[in-house]
Amino acid sequence: MSRGMPYSEFIENTLLGKSKIIKGNSLAEVQARKSATLAQWAKEEERVRHRNAIQDLKSKAEAQTEEAQSRIQEYQSILQHTLPLDDRLAWEELYDRTPFRHVPFTEPEPNLSHISLELDVPEPSWIEFLFAAKKQRRIELEEKAKVEHETRMARHAENRASHAAWMNQAEKEHVQRLADANAEIEKFKAAYEAGEIVSVERYSTMVLNRSEYPDGFEHEFIVQYNAVPKSLIVDFRLPTPSELPHIVQYRFVQTRKAVDPVEMKPKEFDAFYESVLYQTVIRTIHEIFEADYAKHAESVVFNGWVPTVDKATGKDLTAYLVSCHASRDQFEQFNLSRIDPKETFRTLKGLQAGPLAQFAPVRPILQINRDDKRFIEGREVLEGIDPFENLATMPWDDFEHLVRELFAEIFSTEDSEVRVTQASRDGGIDAVAFDPDPIRGGKFVIQAKRYAGLVSVSAVRDLYGTMINEGAVKGILVTTGHYGNDSREFAKDKPITLIDGSNLVYLFQQHGHEVRIETQTKAR
Q1: What is the DSSP string of 413-431?
Q2: What pTM does this model have?
């Protein structure tokens, strides 16, 4: 009768999903058999890991290909994406309905027992029958605790009333802020529906700003409305070829065990690029006409430009690639879900000078005009300013021209412009800055207040109203005086910059001009 092997060891491999009991007549025999088995499993592991690595690369290539094609499809569907949407502004969504957040009064009510513990008031004891002084001491401390409790209760009641008054005032201010903000919306809506120029421009700007494009498509634009002949001009920054996706596929290369990107062929990409641009033209015109429910725009002029470089001089320049004019009557006859955007562009007699990828410039059909008859020639005041002259007491019109010169230096790009208005009696604008930068730029309104004291919050509110009426992206209020908390609170979360006397001096110094402001007496 044979006996089993006395030695054994259990081994397993989770990657291969294998396990085995190694047996032997000695520990050395078990170790030898174990080593042989592990060596065999190691070879199998290497083959499995190799197959898994290849499969991982193939899966990665498939996933990246799917992502690349999805991204290209987003660009190919730029026009179709907007058609099911209602492009009109949802006025109700613009109103601020933020509920007032009530902060509860959390101060705990004074407790007589706790106060007694603080004052070490003893409990009644039989020993008081033997020592009358102890009883008397306890009674005194109890009385002291009661007085302290009453004092704290009175203070607690005062604090509760103070908190209630504070919350009541805070709620009133909250309600007033909402009322002011929502009144501005109502005013804006009424002005748009009445066809006020700057409100039509602002409305159209908001519509186009809310238009969602694929990631990487940074649509930037400026609009101008002409009441006669009821046309809206859009200067639109189009993407350059380098800003569009080029990769159509990721391919697994067996020989190198690598994943390589596959780009569109040049002719395919040129066609893709043209399609995106033509779709953008038609889409923008469609969104303006559809959103303009008051029908102020009977026609739209779309001017599409790209940033490029003058090969002769090496300087940055703006090249208009397309320009298109569409009347509402003609455009609304198109079935945009079935059109070829390029053919529609041709039907609208759009202008282009050649293949769009070649950046051949065209002259826009109609350009945005910066002329404003309110503007006058600025006077040069800054160069002759005496560093000892008090800005708070200089003639108010000199001060406004001085501020205009300062901001002309601040907006010191090649195409920026700062203009001063007539006598500052035309609704509050003292200067207007035009910054062509496609990201930070736009129209800025600047008001100068030569005050010696506090600038009232009404001046800040007036600036905000002027911004809305002018369709400006930002308002700047400059003063030789200072602002109170109510002004700063109103300006918070609005595109308004408040510059007081000390900051104004600092701005002048930053640009190399020594000035001083002293405000002992009110100047204006």
Answers
A1: STT-EEEEESTT-SSS-SE
A2: 0.61
Classify residue 339 as left (phi > 0), alpha (psi -120 to 50) or beta.
beta
**Which DSSP helix (H) or strand (E) runs through 493?**
none
492 and 423 Cβ atoms separated by less than 8 Å: no
Q: Tell me the mean pLDDT in the region 75-87.
A: 95
Residue 77 makes CB contacts below 8 A (sequence gap 6+) with: none
Show the tokens assigned to 433.
């800055």
Per-residue pLDDT of 197-241, as tens digits, reads: 889 999 999 999 999 999 888 888 999 998 878 999 999 999 999
Q: Which residues pair with 483 in a beta bridge?
A: 455
Contacts of 212 (CB under 8 A, 6+ apart): 81
How is 300-356 classified by DSSP, letter by letter? EEEEEEEEEE-TTT--EEEEEEEEEEEEHHHHTTS-TTS--HHHHHHHTT-B--S-G
The CA-atom distances, in angstroms, between 281 and each of 117, 301, 524 are 80, 10, 51
Which residue, chain included where needed, has tokens 């009385």?
143
Whether residue 382 has pLDDT greater than 70: no
Instruction: Quickly count: other Cβ atoms within 10 Å of residue 425's Cβ.
Output: 8
Give the closest residue to 512 by CA, choosing from 404, 385, 398. 385
Position 435, amino acid: D
Q: Which residues pair with 376 in a beta bridge?
A: 420
Name the residue among 437, 439, 500, 434 with its Cα closest to residue 472.
Answer: 434
